[in-house]
Design a protein that fits this description.
Blueprint lengths: L4 H6 L13 H40 L7 E8 L16 E3 L5 E5 L4 E6 L9 E2 L8 E6 L4 E6 L3 E14 L2 E10 L3 E2 L10 E5 L6 E5 L4 E10 L7 E10 L6 E6 L5 E6 L3 E6 L7 E7 L7 E6 L5 E6 L4 E7 L8 E7 L7 E6 L5 E6 L4 E5 L4 E6 L7 E6 L5 E6 L4 E7 L7 H5 L5
Antiparallel strand pairs: 1-29, 2-3, 3-4, 4-5, 6-7, 7-8, 8-9, 8-10, 11-12, 12-13, 13-14, 15-16, 16-17, 17-18, 19-20, 20-21, 21-22, 23-24, 24-25, 25-26, 27-28, 28-29
Length: about 425
């Protein structure tokens, strides 16, 4: 190709192009630079791929524990020192444990607080319930984190706050029970009927207690606390009857922590809701069938937050329910959220975690199932070897253990390893009803 304009004009062939003279050293440097650049690009690609793999490995390492199966181990079984009627646990929420799982306690029908050391052979004396005057403890209900209400066989209720003193010294921790009893209050002053079942709550306005004294007869005690300018807080108690309109007999009941909703389980497999926001005039809601075979409702309880009701029945089924308005609006109605694995025997007790939406149910055959409310999954099945049917159970405050007590007063202690009960593919990627 000619690049000389004069040559093109003359029509003569152009002069041959000059060869590009490059030294060997310069060519070697160029080849070396090219090879280094190629290797650098390859190395950068390897680093990028390795970084992505490392990120995926870290993610896998973080996600893997979420899907590890929970486990449970029997730590020990502790036989009651007092047997017979005196050491028999009272009906209801009559067992508990401190947050370190060192001391378990049970409330006996004979009228005492019996303590069991779960670590070592430490002897702990029992504490008599004051003011019984020959009566027995006929029912026990929780009324908050550490509060209990004890119903007696002569129509009274005795408040209890179960505290534990924790001291540290010489490199060791010492836990000491320190129960505080309140003044007994008379519920059934005229007829002195035994308290069959109890439900209690402690909202800001004062404690509310509902006691069953007959097949369908309830007594509602409302305590209003008034602060005086001088002197202690004055308490005014009001007791009024509530004739529950139920189909059959009341077999169990539960009152939410705000004392707004009272739920009554019946012998015909129904749950009846009462609006308790006006304590002087409770309003009956609808009755909902919660058992497909009309088995009696045998256990009621709330998950943390007191918005989700746990229902167990005589056929062994376990389900959760919530009060929600219908899609088109209107009055709240009880609607089922999840159904869990069935027990082989009637459900006898329900206990909820204080940290998450987990809960456990015990049956009349001595088995325990651990569930998680939002996922609808049953995570664990527990049963102590040669264990008797359990009367009451409690999930430890840190959700790292379960304690149960049988009719003879024997306490069984399980250790739970269940760090991520909420993690399932459905809860991670699907819709979750909280």
């Amino acid at each position: 190709m000619a690049i000389d304009a004069e040559t093109l004009d003359a029509g003569e062939p152009g002069r041959p192009a000059r060869l590009l003279a490059v030294s060997r050293a310069r060519a070697g440097r160029r080849i070396l630079a090219d090879r280094l650049a190629t290797r650098l690009v390859v190395l950068g690609g390897i680093i990028v791929i390795a970084s992505i793999l490392a990120i995926l490995l870290v993610i896998a390492g973080e996600v893997y524990p979420l899907f590890q199966k929970p486990s449970a181990t029997v730590v020990g079984r502790h036989t009651a020192t007092s047997t017979g009627a005196h050491g028999e646990p009272a009906p209801g929420d009559s067992v508990g444990v401190d947050e370190y799982r060192e001391i378990a306690f049970r409330i006996t029908a004979g009228g005492s607080l019996a303590f069991t050391s779960l670590r070592g052979e430490r002897a702990l004396p029992s504490v008599a319930v004051p003011g019984l005057a020959g009566a027995r403890i006929a029912a026990v209900a929780t009324s908050g984190t550490s509060r209990y209400v004890l119903g007696t066989s002569d129509g009274r209720v005795i408040p209890l706050e179960m505290k534990f003193d924790v001291a540290f010294g010489r490199g060791a921790r010492t836990v000491t029970p320190a129960p505080e009893f309140g003044e007994p209050a008379i519920l059934d002053g005229e007829r002195r009927r035994a308290v069959l079942r109890l439900a209690s709550a402690t909202p800001g306005g004062g404690p509310v207690t509902v006691a069953q004294v007959g097949p369908g007869e309830l007594l509602v005690q409302t305590v209003v606390e008034k602060k005086a300018l001088i002197g202690p807080v004055r308490r005014e108690a009001l007791v009024q009857p509530l004739d529950a309109a139920v189909d059959g007999e009341i077999t169990t009941m539960a009152l939410d922590g705000r004392a707004e909703d009272l739920f009554l389980g019946t012998s015909r497999g129904r749950v009846v809701q009462y609006d308790m926001r006006d304590h002087r005039s409770p309003r009956r809601g609808e009755a909902v069938s919660v058992s497909s075979v009309q088995a009696p409702v045998t256990a009621l309880g709330f998950l943390i937050g007191d918005r989700t009701l746990v229902v167990g029945d005589g056929a062994g089924s376990v389900s959760t329910w919530q009060m929600v308005p219908p899609p088109g609006g209107g009055e709240r109605r009880l609607r089922r959220v999840n159904r869990f694995r069935d027990h082989p025997a009637p459900v006898a007790a329900v206990t909820a975690s204080r940290r998450d939406k987990g809960f456990a149910t015990a049956d009349a055959g001595g088995g325990i199932l651990v569930h998680y409310g939002t996922s609808g999954e049953t995570l664990l099945s527990l049963r102590a070897e040669d264990a008797q049917p359990l009367r009451a159970i409690m999930l430890a405050p840190k959700a790292d253990g379960v304690v149960g007590v049988d009719a003879a007063g024997t306490v069984t202690d399980w250790r739970l390893h269940n760090p991520h009960p909420e993690a399932t593919l459905r809860t991670l990627f699907g819709k979750v009803w909280y």
